[in-house]
Design a protein that fits this description.
By secondary structure, the protein is mainly α. Helix content is about 60%, strand content about 0%. It has helices spanning about 10-25, 30-45, 60-65, 75, 80-100.
Length: about 100
Amino acid sequence: MPRGEKSKYTAKQKRQAEDIEKGYESRGVEKQEATRRAWATVNKMWGGGKKGTGVQKPTNTAPAKKGGKLGGKASAARPISERRASAKKAAATRQAHRQA
């Protein structure tokens, strides 16, 4: 089977990869990288493509839930006054962009 061949995946796995890819693209990741990350996530969850009967393992949903939990540590480490000033500056920028 050639590299990148997706015929050994179920329809559900293909749909999941497509949805994950769209999510990455909406966050600004380029198409090729989004595709690579999406299939890596599906492989991590399912352990590859279709398996023979009797070889099934439960799906590992941890990779799909991983996003969003990683951020925020750096911000939380900054003093409140610095975070507040940053928030005020961001609000002013958003307001200026709305008016422009």
